[in-house]
Design goal:
It is globular and about 45 Å long. The mean pLDDT is 94. Helix 1 runs antiparallel to helix 4. The protein contains 6 helices and 11 strands. Strands 1, 2, 3, 4, 5, 6, 7, 8, 9, 10 and 11 form an 11-stranded mixed β-sheet that branches. A hairpin with a 2-residue loop joins strand 6 and strand 7. The termini are far apart. It is an alpha+beta fold. It has one domain: Jelly Rolls, CATH 2.60.120.10. The structure holds zinc ion. Zinc ion binds next to loops.
């Protein structure tokens, strides 16, 4: 697999292997079937191409950030939420895609690996889902909040684990963030349930 999407998959697999909390959760399969998906660009790609890689990531993270940008125009990017749910600014400066999973660019039935990007100063509201999840920061940084523990600022290589149905939220402050997350268990392709009434801490 030497085309941009194949290189992206290989870089993601290497990043999972090099990130202990991801590797302990699940390995990515070596040679999954590949789907023929049409590209779907989103407005955030302009910023993504400008800001990533930032130079702050190194090793497998830097290689993955570069591979995401290199394949960006072939990816089926998704927004999932509506303007009523998250606001127009959020939709203009964010995007995600299913790299591996039941409906991903690469196919498997029991695991989802997705990549998501947020520009600076955005708040992904509190939400929850049946799938167990581990997020890892590829490049940039953000603040993760999860029910039952204090908010935590994370940067390249850091991770955040969310148990099934554990409410969590993410916000960016002065830099964008590029993340890779794994989902396993029930509800792999379910849209997360947003919890709009929950208070969130002040940005820092
Ligand atoms: Zn989640």
């Amino acid at each position: 697999m030497t085309d941009p999407l194949g290189r992206l998959y290989g870089a993601a697999r290497a990043f999972v292997g090099a990130t202990p909390a991801l590797a302990a959760f699940r390995d990515l399969p070596e040679a999954p079937d590949r789907a023929d998906k049409a590209p779907n660009p989103v407005p955030a790609l302009v910023q993504l191409a400008r800001d990533v890689p930032s130079g702050a990531a190194s090793g497998a993270g830097a290689a993955l950030a570069e591979a995401v940008v290199g394949a960006a125009d072939r990816i089926d990017w998704l927004l999932t939420y509506t303007e009523d749910q998250v606001g127009a600014d959020f939709l203009a400066r964010y995007g995600w895609f299913e790299l591996l999973g039941p409906t991903g660019h690469f196919r498997t039935d029991d695991l989802v690996a997705f990549v998501a990007y947020w520009g600076p100063g955005l708040r992904y509201p509190w939400h929850r889902h049946a799938a167990e999840e581990v997020y890892a920061v590829i490049d940039g940084g953000c603040v993760f909040e999860a029910e039952g523990r204090p908010a935590r600022a994370v940067t390249a290589g850091d991770t955040s684990h969310h148990a099934p149905w554990q409410a969590h939220a993410l916000r960016t402050v002065d830099q964008p963030v590029l993340t890779l997350a794994l989902h396993a268990g029930e509800g792999l392709n379910d849209v997360p349930e947003l919890l709009p009434d929950r208070e969130t801490g002040a940005p820092r």
